């Protein structure tokens, strides 16, 4: 939220994510049913959320929503690998988003794209609870100016239901963190695989993504 907009609102709560867990902040919002704008930041990213009556909308950037949409559609069995590759080649001339081109070409329906985008948005929201470093600020009241428009098309979640899902995933996250240290670590291949190592599509994609530049979170 811009400094100009924030000047007209009251900061109700702020803190460090290393000292106050985001789940505790969300629980407070659910209990009090407060209306306010929450900004969550880490050294690399920022998310803004609007909460009211125990429900919350989180603005997820378009670049995050559309990230690897082709791979998600392939994994869901909606389109074939060859189809996505062909459309990606066409995209060099037609700069429209991949999802738009797939629908326009009759390769899938808009409802398939919408389902993938909603799933990606939810995953990004759940990922907020893995941020170990960063800060948060909560402004009381409805968002102001341009910030308010950010939430018009955002998916809405019941905070209590959201926290239940976060709790379900927490054990899995602890196991993952024990193995990799942090989602912001950058993996790299120590050596290239020799020949066909019998990897499935998911594992092959993970191996390819370990390029020495992309973090686990990305």
What class would the helix/strand composition place it in? Answer: alpha+beta
Mean pLDDT: 87
Strand content: 15-25%
One letter per element, helices H and strands E, the order comes to: HEHEEEHHHHHEHEHH
**Structure annotation, total helices:** 10
How would you describe what is shown here?
It is a single chain. By secondary structure, the protein is α+β, with helices and mostly antiparallel strands. Helices cover 45% and strands 15% of the residues. It has helices spanning 3-6, 22-32, 62-65, 69-75, 81-90, 98-104, 110-127, 145-150, 159-180, 201-209, and strands at 11-16, 36-41, 46-52, 55-59, 135-140, 156-158. A hairpin with a 4-residue loop joins strand 2 (36-41) and strand 3 (46-52). The longest helix is centred in the last third of the chain and has 22 residues, at 159-180. It starts with a helix and ends in a 9-residue tail after the last helix.
């Amino acid at each position: 939220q811009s400094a100009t907009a924030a000047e007209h609102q009251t900061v109700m709560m702020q803190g460090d994510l290393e000292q106050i867990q985001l789940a505790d902040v969300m629980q407070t919002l659910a209990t009090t049913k407060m209306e306010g704008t929450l900004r969550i930041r880490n050294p690399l990213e920022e998310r803004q959320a609007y909460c009211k009556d125990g429900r919350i909308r989180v603005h997820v950037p378009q670049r995050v929503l559309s990230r690897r949409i082709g791979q998600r559609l392939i994994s869901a069995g909606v389109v074939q690998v060859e189809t996505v590759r062909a459309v990606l080649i066409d995209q060099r001339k037609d700069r429209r988003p991949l999802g738009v081109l797939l629908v326009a070409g009759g390769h899938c329906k808009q409802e398939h794209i919408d389902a993938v985008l909603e799933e990606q948005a939810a995953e990004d929201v759940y990922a907020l609870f893995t941020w170990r470093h960063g800060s948060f600020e909560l402004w009381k009241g409805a968002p102001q100016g341009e910030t308010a428009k950010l939430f018009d098309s955002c998916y809405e979640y019941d905070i209590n239901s959201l926290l239940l899902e976060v709790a379900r995933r927490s054990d899995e996250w602890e196991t993952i963190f024990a193995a990799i240290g942090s989602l912001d670590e950058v993996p790299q291949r120590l050596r290239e695989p020799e020949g066909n190592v019998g990897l499935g599509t998911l594992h092959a994609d993970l191996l390819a993504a370990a390029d020495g530049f992309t973090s686990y979170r990305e």
